[in-house]
Amino acid sequence: MSSRTSGTDSQNHSLPAFDVDGMLGHLAKWLRVLGFDAAYPCKAPSPGRTFITAKRIAAGSDTIIVEDQDPLDQLKQALEHAGISTDPGLFLSRCLLCNVPVKEVPRDRIAGRVPELIFQALTKFNECPRCGRVFWEGSHAERMKMRLQKMGLPS
Fold this sequence. Notes:
This protein is 25% helix and 17% strand. The protein has 4 helices and 7 strands; from the N terminus they run βαβββαβαββα. It has 2 domains: 17-87; 103-150, no CATH class. The chain is of the alpha/beta class. Helix 1 crosses helix 2.
């Protein structure tokens, strides 16, 4: 089941939207980490969306074919091919599972839903309006940013 959302949602009104081939799940996750609408798994593009695949037979004007095996190399290749850059303000702005923009929630609404040490240490939390998953910028976010920066991608 793919997670499609509009490429014109209110938070990301001018960003491109991607449909990602079923063999490229890690790439879809990294696109979402950067705030891009990345439906996954997909077999073909939907109207107004760019299809990303590793299969050469799927080539078309609305298709990006990635050749690298590493998901971050694929990410860099896809962004370069699409002629787009990242926006650090969109980092972790989408649910990594549902592909919908997350919403900041009052701290008291997530009490008991995150580890107590995290709850005590942080003040900003986001929630997926679809699945209810809670997100926060912890050490995992810093590791993601460092990996992206090593690839020359601002995060």
